[in-house]
Amino acid sequence: MSYEHILFDESAGIATITINRPQALNALHTGVIGEMIDAVDRVRDEGTARVLVLTGAGRAFCSGADLASGTTANNRGIANSDAGSSLESHFNPLLERLFALPVPFITAVNGPAAGAGCSFALAGDIVVAAKSAYFLQAFVNIGLVPDVGSTWLLPRLAGKARAQAMMMLGDNIPAATALDWGMIYAVADDDDLKATVTALATRLANGPTRAYTLIRHGIRACMDVSLTEGLRVEREHQRTAGRTADFAEGVTAFLQKRAPRFKGR
Fold first, then answer.
1. Model confidence over 1-48: pLDDT tens digits?
2. The whole model's pTM is what?
3. Domains of the chain
4. What SS3 state is found at 143?
5. What are phi and psi for residue 111, nearest 5 degrees?
């Protein structure tokens, strides 16, 4: 598939998807989402990338759904339209694919992340934001409710009180505040964002990929279950990790007092 609205690159085990509509602040319509789904499926199916990075071109990460496009989000905000249709067909399947990836997922939030863009930005396993970036739940400003997983994800990151106020007031949350609230992992100077994320992605690309997958899936599996069920999940995941070549290499390297050479198997 050739891409019109995104850029896709893979190098040294790092796959990068860049939303490439800078003139529209990387606003999303179903065409953009379709291309992103195709790229995520490539990462999943081809098996050569060991980490995925998602970012935006220009001065924004993503401004959310493209309300100016007649094909976007089923004309969200127009009376009597089904504002949930494109969620079911495009936006939600992309989010679920990102969560189900067999490799770590980093978001490099290079600028404003609003609406659905906020959801995709915060969906990363590791979220690094530029100092100038901000996060915005913009839905209430046009009479809609948060979507693309926001009402599931944000309370778990920032707590109910902050998440609810963020959604109901529709105010910008600067990157520094998002860091203080526990929504993101780190803030970098704007000029240093790419280098910071590349260093993290390189580290992950050289790590025990299958263990990373079990960690990311295990955390989500254990967030809403009893301790007993959480212990069961950990036990099953540990059994799986214990059968990997990376575990054998990690133990061997430890005993030999050298750095491990993980292969992602």
1. 899 999 999 999 999 999 999 999 999 999 999 999 999 999 999 999
2. 0.90
3. 6-205 (3.90.226.10), 209-256 (1.10.12.10)
4. coil
5. -170, -160
